Amino acid sequence: MAPLPNAELVQNSLQLYRYLLRCCKQLPEENIRQHYKHAIRQSFKVHADEDDPERIRQIIKRAIEDADWIMNKVSASDCLIFSLNRFKTKKTLQSEL
């Protein structure tokens, strides 16, 4: 699960905020979605007074990289859970034979 397409088009804080919230919608569990939505809101409050354009570009770049990492982490854990469930099902079917 990669971040949403067009991450490279994010140029300002409002676009980043919307992008990150859309990424949250792809997360599999409600408690995980709520956790990251809260973290996004808090981060925006902390950086609300940032006015250096270079620093804002760094923050945007880092936020997108972090979103990519989180989405890949979630994707990897989903694959692991799917594989474990598949293995358990296969073992159950074999034991029934």
From TrEMBL:
PANTHER family in alphabetical order: LYR MOTIF-CONTAINING PROTEIN 9
TM region(s), chain numbering: none
UniProt feature coiled coil, ranges: none
Entry protein name: LYR motif-containing protein 9
Domain Complex 1 LYR protein: 14-68
Family: Belongs to the complex I LYR family. LYRM9 subfamily.
Organism: Coturnix japonica
Signal peptide: none
